[in-house]
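Methods: example folding runs. The two proteins below were folded one after another, and each record is reproduced exactly as written to the output file, sequence line first and structure-token line second.
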Amino acid sequence: MFKLKSGTRLLFLCIFSLLLLLLFLPFEIPYYLTFQSVVFPKAEWIVYKGEENGLHSSFINYLKDTPVDHFYQMKGQKDFTISFKENLSEEESILKNDTIAFITSAQSLEEINYAKSRILEFKTLLKADTLEIDNSGLEEYKKTYETSRRKYALQKRIYLRKKSLFAKNKISAEEYSEVFRLYESDSVDTEIDRLKYISLKTGLKNKDVKYILAQIKSYENKIKTINKNAGNLIVKSPITGAILNYFSTDTLLSAADLSMGVINIPVEPENKKHLNTGMKVYINDPLTGNSAEGKIKTFSREQKPWHNDLYYSATVIIPENKIPAGTLVECKIKIALYSPFKYLTVMVGNIFK
């Protein structure tokens, strides 16, 4: 039978007595709840291209109980180009309501050019009766007018048929709009060709001149309206922060409010009773050793994905944050001071939980 030497027995007895003494000594050991989480900025703003070449602006405020994502689409501005402010680079500071970019719509430019061409055509009509032209030339203008009239009549029939189908929801709004645009354009072309022929044949009447002047005024007003609306197509920053680097090909701009850090940590219901708003949270970046202190700001109840189990989410703010956004950090919260015996009991209980 194996027997311990008297010296060894005495050593074990001393060690056991010392451990037993330590367990009941009148000092306390801090007990921490530990978590892993990611540091977020106070707020984040992303501008990116979405479906059908639309422009979206996504703004997330991480200080809310649950981050909310808002989307805005530049409706009716397909085939747009976006021009950013000069010298806009990574880490550059921006202020709230700063104009960051200008949006130019190819559709708007096309409409302006179309209106300008119509103005030029109508202004030319006012001088057409001063031209000298022989009978053969006049006959050519007549043929042009008759061709335009036949084309317009055909387009009108197509338009009326498509209009009926659109009213019954059998064609898309885009298809109807394109047919209407062609119908309207052919209508103006026909009237211009008619006035050209009339002005050269008999000269313009007062009602014709009034019509031409009214059309010029109408297209000038249309250009003013388009330019006014185009002036509103600007991108303004909703935050004060800094430009960030981004890695998505669809992302046009990314910026964040880095004035403080925000962490969201999950808290099981049995641990919620130990936590209160205002409690300190000790944060450490295990890769760099950088550390920071935060405070619990709010709690919210959440539901685990694919489960009915509820848990709490604590929002932690870091006023003086030196840890970059996106960093995976270790967090701990001191919830109690335990005697050595109580501390050992809790630790053993956690192991076998």
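Second run, written to the same file directly after the first:
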Amino acid sequence: MCSRMSSSWIWFCPSVREQTRRSLSNTHCSEKTMILFSIWRRREKSTLVFFQKNCHGSASAAMFGEILCQKLKEPIEQSVYKRTARDLADEMRSNCEPLNGDRSHLEKHILKTLAEEEDFNKYMNYIHHPRDHFKSFIRDEVSRYITDQFSLSVLPKMKENIKLLEQKIMRAAHQSTERVQENRGDVGLWLKSFTRQISDDLIFSEKHLSGVKHDDVDDINLLEDVIKRELPAIISEISRRLNTESFPLKLDYKFRPDGVQIDLFCQCCWVQCPFCGATCTNTTEDHPGDHSVPLHRVTGVNGHFYRGTTNLCINICTSDVASDQCFYLDGSDDRVLYREYRRAGGDYEKWSITPDLSELIYWKWFVCRFNRDLEKYYRKTFEWSGEIPEEWRTYTKHEALESLEKYF
């Protein structure tokens, strides 16, 4: 028994179609047969147009989906590093000892590190360029923390953030498809919905697809399927590149963990004591009221010397302001009593220096440890009036470090 051949199968099979055409043309066909053949021909053309249109639409959807995923790669990477940096900054505020307090707490750790390393050049940078030294110290601490904790803390955070972003993008693609279907929309509506949903997590908009043709995409389901297929490969590629070297390089400065910490600790007052150079510890830049600092220094550390000599001062300004001694203003013969230092005007009148006769062991130890370096640096000497007391030479580094606890 012969089965009936589908007419659509005939018109998609060229050999059968051509054979049928010849057969009909070589016989005396009835008018009815010719009409049937004419209908077949018209169906052939419309079927081929439909087939070509759908193939083109599918190809456009597939290509657009692949391009979209590639365009998402850099924003995803930036978002992962940015999120991880923010999480890491919060973690370091709790777990990184030098960074888990206020500005004074940080300065105590800076002074401890300087004493432990005994690097004179770093001391001079701290004394004369305190802001730069703070920034350098913070960068070193953050870099050390990231290196030490990369496998235990940093990498797991990054992978978790990547996973969350992948889920967010997949969900946005699916919900956008549903919205298009519910509203009988097009790819324009899909894209608008998609970019809006991911905008809180990624710096990505329709502008990123400028110049990419997509108005002929009409298979939204296929577009979503392509994203589901291509996105995991993009995520895997990003994950393979995660390492300690790339972490700071992939971020804008303002988002880096060290940048966050520097902004936190360094947007403050950096005015230095006019006598010893100690930096005001107020946490507000251009703050009202007087400048102050818990730990002043031997003034010779800042290069002060006795007038008419080449001898570096061994005075401490907190002791001087309790005395009847005088100082000269720069470039002037006018003398001012230390205890009336505010009368000197300028920077002097803006400082609150409380009389303190305590030992200040830390800076006395420093002067003894680096007296030759200081003499060479300032081209002055600790002689005559500036001779270092023998008592100072008895202080140990351990005692110097312990003394910091009293002031911070």
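Comment on the second run: The radius of gyration is 39 Å.
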